[in-house]
Amino acid sequence: MRALIVSGGDIDYDLLKFYCNSEEEQVIIAVDRGLRYLYNLNILPNHIVGDFDSADFDLIECYRNNTNIQIHKYFPEKDYTDTDIALNLAISLSVHSITILGALGKRMDHALGNIHILAKALSYNIFCEIVDIHNRIYVIDKSIALEKEKVYGKYVSLIPLTSFVYGLTLNGFKYIVNDYKLSIGKSLGISNEIIENFASIELKKGILIVIESKD
Q1: Under 8 Å between Cβ of 141 and 206
Q2: Residues in CB range of 207: below 8 A, 6 or more apart
């Protein structure tokens, strides 16, 4: 089962419909203002999470009597962001993967925080991605293969999440490296492109942020 987390950042409705209409079994978690996006498409979430400081109170009330929806309310003075709480909930449901929509927007602090919490899912061996109309973002701590036709956009950027990523080797890319130590503060991994049908990202130690992007 997959978890779809709908947060309160910028969301494209066509993208939201695409993920909500997936044939894969999934649980939908609405995060605070993300509930409005789902409501506008007449899509019912399985869980509603947040301190509801940015959600419409009347909107939440209209779901309160629905026994198929669990509402998890937290005080605003909490130690975690709403999206982080939703991620914790998804992990507790023993899902195999998590997609987060609405995790990016005008607030760069929230965007960076949401990218960093992807490492939490990774620590549970759960694949977790943030998706918007331009980007697909995930983190890795082991080697992966990429198929050019299935990559989200033209560009693939690699940014260290740990201080160093050791033994980075790229094959099938326009710019290749071999057994390279990539450190925070270097832009070497930005805007690479896959030029073969298949490419690989290999690493020996560390955590990489992978961003598949399109203009």
Answers
A1: yes
A2: 119, 122, 139, 140, 141, 160, 161, 162, 165
d(C-alpha 49, C-alpha 28), whole Å: 11
Local confidence pLDDT in tens for the 215 residues of the chain:
999 999 988 999 999 999 998 888 999 999 988 999 999 999 999 999 877 665 566 777 777 877 788 988 776 556 678 899 999 999 999 999 999 999 998 888 889 999 999 999 999 999 999 999 999 999 999 999 999 999 999 999 999 999 999 999 999 999 999 999 999 998 999 999 999 999 999 999 999 999 999 98
Q: How many CA atoms lie within 13 A of 57 on its CB side?
A: 1
Those residues with Cβ within 8 angstroms of residue 202's Cβ, 6 or more apart along the chain or in another chain: 143, 167, 168, 169, 170, 171
Q: What angle do CA 50, 43, 31 make, to 5 degrees?
A: 15
If you search the block for the tokens 């940014």, which residue do you land on?
A: 159
| Domains of the chain (ranges, CATH numbers) | 2-133 (3.40.50.10240), 140-213 (2.60.120.320)
Which residue's structure tokens are 């036709």?
149
- Distance CA(205)–CA(74), nearest Å, equals 37
Strand order from edge to edge, sheet including 198-202? 144-147, 198-202, 164-171, 180-183
Whole-model pTM: value is 0.92
Question: β-strand 26-31 against 47-50: which pairing, if any?
Answer: parallel
DSSP 3-state of 116: helix
